[in-house]
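Section 3.1: Structural characterization of target chains.
Under the original work plan, the team committed to producing a structural model for every single-chain target entering the pipeline before any wet-lab resources were allocated. The record below documents one such target. The sequence was received from the expression subgroup and is listed exactly as submitted; it comprises 360 residues.
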Amino acid sequence: MRFANFLVFLVVISAVFAVPVTAQAWFVVLNSSQVGVVIGSVNSTYILNVVGTAKHCVYVEAYELTYQPLVNELASLAERGVSVYIVLSGNVYGGIPEDEYSAVGELVSAGAHVSFNYMYDFVHSKVFVIDNETVILGSINPTYYGFEHDLGIDLVINNATIAKVFAEIILSDYYNETPPQIGYPGIVVSPINSAEYLGDLLNQPDPLYMAIEELYPSSNMYSYIEGHTDRVVLVGEHSENDYAVSELGAVMVPDLTAKAILVGNYVYVGSVNLDYESLHNNRELGIIIENPVVAEEVRDVILQWYSEYASGTTQQGEQVSRGLQLPTTTLLLLITLLILFYTARRLMRPRRRRRRRVLS
């Protein structure tokens, strides 16, 4: 009897402890000391600094890898005996660039392991795992424009458990295998759970701030976004984003590559765009965390981009308006002067003619 009671007790305790994990499956709570924010192109080179600290292993997954300072750093690590594993997309719009083939040759010669993944339409992730302790992920592409020009957001997370989960995913993709089940909360993986987790995030009631390069109707997320009457939505300059502009009040921002969503203290950062391809056919990686400090920092970045672009648009509009008003006013003045001149000339001509007749 006591043993039966003990079993019941274990079941109850297990249920009690299981509830928070289930309830929080779509996000993970992190301390501010564990998370740093990287903003492209303000401090993108911080990624190089963190990668350069590797002592044992580095795992990389990226759509393209052509940023030469990063290629040099990874090659140097491999030459020093650090295990370097890199997964690149086997499919690239327009084909794999020649400078990537050159980079791959340099990395392989240095001892790095490079694999092209063909299991998905595109491997669109931008993730680095350093020594199974730190993970860098987000939307900053390891290309020249990604580091030096584009508006992207990455998180640097110092958490060994989370880092190891991403390392397992990258290694599975390296061998072109299906990754194991994702059993840790907050880790967003396309095509496994991204639609579900991002839907849960967007379904939260607080004001919404978004900087999403692609926000297309095919995502089936518009209804969630429309539920936030208090929202700021930024999108990239793509024609498909016209729907987001007209239906959601989104603002197009040049060179925006960020994929960040903020609702209350919940923050998503990753490579997942809100379109069907990204959610269901690509390999994409991201994370949803709860942290008020990080939330405020990401919110400030989104509002700064919005303010800069909105003020620029207003000024341009005013300049265009003034430009239209000035020629119109001048034209009216010229027409009035011509009318007056013509009228005066008509009035003067008859008098001159009569004078000539008198004199003659």
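The mean pLDDT is 86.
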